[in-house]
Amino acid sequence: MAGKTLYDKLWDDHVVHTEDDGSCLIYIDRHLVHEVTSPQAFDGLRMAGRKPWRVARNLAVADHNVPTNHRDRGIADPVSRLQVETLDKNCAEFGITEFGMSDIRQGIVHVIGPEQGATLPGMTVVCGDSHTSTHGASGALAFGIGTSEVEHTLATQCLVQKKAKNLLISVNGEVRAGVTAKDIVLAIIGEIGTAGGTGYTIEFGGSAIRALSMEGRMTVCNMAIEAGARAGLVAVDDVTIDYYRNRPLSPKGDDWFMAERMWRNLHSDKNAVFDKTINIDATTIKPQVTWGTSPELVVAVDDVVPNPADEADAVKAQSMQRALDYMGLQAGQKITDIQIDKVFIGSCTNSRIEDLRAAAVVVEGKKVAANVKQALIVPGSGLIKQQAESEGLDKIFIDAGFEWRDAGCSMCLAMNADRLEEGERCASTSNRNFEGRQGYGGRTHLVSPAMAAAAGIAGYFVDVSAWTGE
Amino acid sequence: MKAFTTLTSIVAPLDRANVDTDAIIPKQFLKSIRRTGFGVYLFDEWRYLDQGQPDMDCTNRPINKDFVLNKPQYKSAQILLTRENFGCGSSREHAPWALEDYGFRAIIAPSFADIFYNNCFKNGLLPIALDAEIVDGLFKELTDDYALTIDLAAQTITTPSGKTIAFNVDENRKFRLLNGLDDIGLTLQHADKIHAYETERAKRAPWLFREISI
C-alpha cells in the first residue's frame, strides 16, 4: 500500500464528515483574525444570532491598518481607525483574545501565530488572508480563506473543503553565500509560474529546505500562494521541535512529550505518492530580483530585463510588455543598472529576527545612498522589535539612515500611511509586485532582506553575494 | 445569497492573464466594514484616470475610455470573459463582492486562482473554467452584442450560433448555488459529528483543548 504524504496525514486527521461528491467538512484547530477581512463576518454572526463555536481557538490582532510610527497618537485616517476599532469591539463582544495596538505582542498575524505558539505542528490553521500559508512551515495545514469562510469558521469551527493534489518541490544542494530562503522561493516561482501550484498543496523538501531555519521555512511557505498553492508545507524535524519548545501557547509538561511524539510523525512516508514532483538544484540559485508586476517575472541579479519579443506565447509576451511599461524598464537593461527610490524591509515574508540580522550585517557602518528617499525597517512584531533592540540592530539601522518602525503590514500593501508615490521604485522584501500594490503607480522589486539592504546603501541593485559595499 | 439558475447576457472581454485581486479591488477600499457598495470601485485603477478613495463619489471621476467596462456596448454585461489564473493573489472576498455588486454573475476563464474560485460560490457568482482553446475561440468570435446563455442545472453554455459548451462544477457547490443556500446552516446540521470529532481528538491531542489564556 502506498504511504501517505504529509498533506494526506494532516487532511485525514481533520475530516469530520465526507459528502457524496468527495468534499469534506474539515475541523479547524486555529483561526487567526485581523481587522480587514472580519467585520462582515462578525456582522453575519450577529444577524443570524450565532456565537463562536469554540471561542478560545480564535486569536485576533490588527496589523494591516496600524500606523508604524507615533502609535501613541492613534490612527489618523478615520476609515482605517473605524476598521481597527470595529475589530476591538467585535472581539470584546464575542470574547475573543486580541492583542491590541499597544500590546508588545502585537504584530503581523502570520508572525505572531508561530511566535506565540498559537499555530503549532499538526494543526489546521486558517485566516482571512492568503499568506496564512506561512504557518505550513511548522508542519501545519494552513491556508487563506475569504470572509464568508471566516464567518463559517467562527460559527462551526469547520470548513467545507475539497482535497487538493500533492506536489513535492524538492530543493537539493547547498546554496551559495548570500542566497536566502527568499531567493529559493522566488527562483521556484520563476520556474513554475504563479499558477504552477494551483490546485495543489506544496510540500517543500530536500536538503536545501532542511538546512533552513524556521524563519527561512516560513518565508518559503509564505510565498506558496504566489505560486498558486493555498498551502505550503515543510515536514517536522529537530528545527521545528526546538522552535516550539517553550512558546507561550506550546503544550507544557506531559502534553509536550505527547505532542512531540505525535509531531515527529509529521513527514511524508518514504513510499508516499505525489501527483507531481519538481526538482530544483539549489546550487545554481543566485540572488533574485523581480522586474515585472507578477512574482513569476523574476531573474537573477546578474541578469538583464527579459525581452517580450523572445516569448513565443502571444498572451505572455503582451503581459510582459505591459509589465515593462508599468515598471518603466527596457528589455535588455541590466538589473544592476536599476536605481531605486525607496527600501522596504518588512512584511509577513521577511520581518523576523533573522531577516533583520541579515539586513543589519549589510548596512553596518554604511549610509543609505543619496538617491534613496526613504528606507523603512518594519519588524514583524513588537517582540521582534524588542529582541532586535536588545541586539543593538536598531542603532545600526538608524545610524545608516533607515527608519526604525513599529510592527505591522505597512508598505507591503500600503493600507496604512506607508506607501510608494506614483512612479517610485522600491526594493521590497514583501511578497507581491502587483500594479499599485505598494501605492498607486508604485513600482515594486521583490528581493531578500540582504539584497534590499544592499540596494539601499548602493542606491541601485547589487549582487549582495559579491558586494563589498565600496 | 442570490441563487443562480440560468443567465443570458452580453459578454465583456477582459483580455488579460493573471488578473489579481489587487487589480479587481485595490486595497484602500478594503477599509470598509460593509459588504456592499464595492461595484463602483471594481477595477478602479484601470477604470478611472484618477486615484480612487474609499467612499468617493464616482459619478464625475475621469474615466479611462480604453478600458473594456467603460465601452457603452458592455455596460449591461453580466458575464466576464477573461484569461488564465483570474483572481490570483490576495484572498480578499471584496473581489467577488465588487464583481457581484457591479452586476457580474458569471466569469469564464481557462483557470482561476483557488481562493477566489471558492469565494465566488459564496456570493452567487459562477466561475466557469473552460479549456484555453475554447476560451480563445470565444474571444475570437465575440462581437459587441455577443450574448451567451448559461444554464447551471444543465451545466451548459449556449453561443449565439446555437453551439453548446459543457462545463464542470462540483455537485455540492452547484446544489448550494442553484438554491442560494447558507453554508453555515448546512454545516450546523452536522453539529453532532463536530462534537464527536472534538471528543475523539481531545483524547489524541489534549493540549489543543486546555484553552490556556495568554
Describe the protein in words.
The complex is a heterodimer of chains A (470) and B (214). With 470 residues, chain A is an alpha/beta fold. Chain A has helices at 6-12, 39-48, 78-94, 109-116, 147-156, 181-192, 207-210, 214-222, 238-244, 254-263, 314-327, 353-363, 382-390, 393-400, 449-458, and strands spanning 15-18, 24-27, 30-33, 58-61, 97-99, 124-127, 141-144, 158-161, 165-172, 200-205, 231-233, 276-281, 288-290, 298-300, 342-345, 374-377, 403-404, 425-428, 443-446. In chain A, the strands form 5 sheets. Chain A has a 5-stranded parallel beta sheet with strand order 5-4-3-6-7. Chain A has a 5-stranded parallel beta sheet with strand order 17-16-15-18-19. In chain A, strands 11-10-9-12 form a 4-stranded parallel beta sheet. In chain A, strand 3, helix 2 and strand 4 form a beta-alpha-beta unit. In chain A, helix 2 packs across helix 5 and helix 6 (181-192) packs parallel to helix 8 (214-222). Chain B is α/β, with parallel strands linked by helices. Helix content of chain B is 30%, strand content 15%. Chain B has helices spanning 21-24, 44-47, 94-102, 114-121, 132-141, 171-179, 183-188, 191-204; strands at residues 6-14, 79-82, 106-109, 126-129, 147-151, 156-158, 164-166. Chain B has a 7-stranded mixed beta sheet with strand order 4-3-2-1-5-6-7. Chain B is globular. In chain B, 41% of the residues are buried. The mean pLDDT of chain B is 96.
